[in-house]
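To assess whether ligand presence alters the predicted conformation, the chain was also submitted together with FE2/S2 (inorganic) cluster. Input:
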Amino acid sequence: MAWRKVGFLGELRPDGVTGVDLDGTPVALYRIDGAVYATHGICTHALAFLTEGFVEDGKVECPLHQGVFDIRSGKALCAPLTQDIKTFAVKVEDGA
Ligand code: FES
């Protein structure tokens, strides 16, 4: 796997979500308890940006219909979601 640099640790909102664009793919980056996680940036239910969602307890709530994903696994946790969200491996090196 080729790693891609998408930003610096200091740019991520602590315990929140920050959006980046990876070659046209919206990616949501989460900084939770000091660790960084990444999911696809658009909800699997409809066109809603998870960067506008609400993050709490390792989960992100979609801003449109309140579907909830587990950030670490991408698992869809409640209706109306029927499809998990893609997650991406993250490596933090030298603050990036
Ligand atoms: Fe996310 Fe409907 S668009 S739950």
